Predict the structure.
Amino acid sequence: MTELPDEAKRMIGVEKTKTYQVTKKDIRRYAQAIGDLNPLYFDEAYAAGTRYGKIVAPPLFCHSFAFDDVPAEELREDGLPIELDVPLPVTRAIGGGSVFDVGSPISPGDEIKVTKKIVDIYSKTGKSGLLYFIVIDTLYENQNNEMVAREKATYIQR
């Protein structure tokens, strides 16, 4: 195993938080983008007759808040989100998998707090050489401090 650069080690445990306001339009557009036209996501009359009593977002909707919307020139050279800009001697990255838990439903008017934390960075030697693994925990909570989702994702960089 190769020693991690000190700058990368210092990023372990650091939390970053952002907040997003959910609109009916956001939910409708997300549902359309994923091809799910369930009226629960956009028809107020239909949604009122469901167990939720109102429009709710599709289960993975909050994942649209996972990465900052930044100009292309601010992205990493390989096009990956700036959230994966960990000082490692690498030039490429891929998703290594994630576990996504869904909690309370999200509705228009909700304020979603997204808290990201790098929980681990480690290295292994693979067939193509040295690989770095970055494990990120992302917690999504509504204005009532209820978990609406949580993701633990691993990214592999080489």
